[in-house]
Amino acid sequence: MTVKIFDTPEVQDFLKTVAGFDQAGGDERAKQIMHRLLSDLFRLIDDFDVTPEEYWSAVSVLNALGQGTQFGLLSPGLGFDHFLDMRMDAADEAARRNGGTPRTIEGPLYVAGAPEAVGFARMDDGRDPDGETMWLTGQVRDTDGKPIAGAKVEIWHADSKGGYSFFDPSQSEYNLRRTIVTDAEGRYTARSIIPSGYGVPEGCATDQVLKALGRHGERPAHIHYFISAPGYRHLTTQINLAGDPYTFDDFAFATREELVIEGQRIEDAAEAEKRGLEGLFTEVVFDVELAATDAPELQTRHARPRAKESEEAVSEQAATAQV
Ligand SMILES: [Fe+2]
Q1: How far is the CA of 322 from the centre of ligand 1 (A)?
Q2: Is there a contact between 191 and 176 (Cβ–Cβ < 8 Å)?
Q3: For residue 235, what are the contacts with CB-CB under 8 A and spacing of at least 6?
Q4: Terminus-to-terminus CA distance in the chain, angstroms?
Q5: 73-106 pLDDT, tens per residue?
Q6: For a Cys-Cys bond, which of 35, 121, 199, 294 suits 218, CB 3.0-4.6 Å?
Q7: How far is the CA of 190 from the centre of ligand 1 (A)?
Q8: What is the DSSP string of 219-263?
Q9: How far is the CA of 260 from the centre of ligand 1 (A)?
């Protein structure tokens, strides 16, 4: 039996009470947002005639997501991270802040405090038997093409099985995570291993939600970046390696055309020797363009709970994910 009660004075008054409108304490913005959120959901229950069984199974999925600290994983899967990027892009455009390498989502797996080096760093600990050597390099420039020396390039990526150190306890501390400060020519170089793409764990709550939508939870091989320098807009981005089956079918919607990079397989022994390597390797070149700004708030990454960055362990989990 379909009934519609949302517009009745009884339900409307009830929503105001639930959102604390008649209470002096609390936070005004929180009240407004909760009132809107609950109103939209109550209306949805009415419109779709949601049954008690459906409602309680949704509660159960939410509990499972929380237990697995998976909201940070489902969030990009449901497009929230990309939607926030679209809003930031639109805000930049409205403010005529043009130029620079495009941003894309941070994801939930950054860990603060990675070892720092100038110019060059080796990122892998040499313990991944399937790790194929990657030579990752590039130049950080301003929008006129002038190199930016001393820019901070933070890089993190997965291993050959798609796992991230810290979240994957089998890896050594800060494996595949480094901060490289650009040299006098604005260049950074990392020796590392080609990351694998990865999927959300089979059967986890995020997987359940995606499966209900007929979607997969796979990401292509990718490499995350934070790039910053005084006087320039902080950039959160990532590159996708070309040729992965999911390069243009990323469950997290992070792929942007300009950020797809084709690695070059190099088999020339002399080229390997020049870099202190043995055997074949893949060179990945990612040059970055930073846009200038005087606004200090645009020169740093926005606040969010991040592993080893936040003081509170609980909030540290809030945006991360056990994968
Ligand atoms: Fe990632």
Answers
A1: 13
A2: no
A3: 100, 101, 103, 225, 226, 227, 228, 288, 290
A4: 42
A5: 999 999 999 999 999 999 999 999 989 999 999 9
A6: 199
A7: 17
A8: E-SEEEEEEE-TTB--EEEEEEETT-TTTT--TT----GGGEE--
A9: 14
Tell if the pTM clears 0.85, that is, is over it: yes
| 187 token code pair | 């260049």
Helix (H) or strand (E) holding 30: helix 28-47
Going by the DSSP 8-state scheme, the letter that residue 81 receives in this structure is: H
Question: 296-307: per-residue pLDDT in tens?
Answer: 999 999 999 899
State the distance from the centre of ligand 1 to the C-alpha of 295, rounded, in angstroms.
29
Q: Domain 73-303 - what CATH class?
A: mainly beta
Each domain of the chain, given as residue ranges in start order, spans 1-50, 73-303
Instruction: Give bridge partners of residue 192 from the DSSP assignment.
Output: 134
Q: Which residues does 198 contact at the CB level (< 8 Å), separation at least 6?
A: 158, 161, 162, 163, 218, 219, 323
Contact 190, 153 (CB under 8 A): no
Distance 240 CA to ligand 1 centre (A): 10
Token representation of residue 74: 């489902």
Q: Which residues is 282 bridged to in the sheet? A: 134, 265
With tokens 């930016």, the residue in question is 148
Q: Quick one: tokens of 71?
A: 């909201």
Distance, CA of 212 to CA of 100 (rounded, Å): 38
Whole-angstrom Cα Rg for the chain: 23
SS3 state of residue 14: helix
- Residue 85: helix, strand or coil by DSSP? helix
- Tokens linked to 53: 């069984």
Token pair, residue 317, equals 């989990």
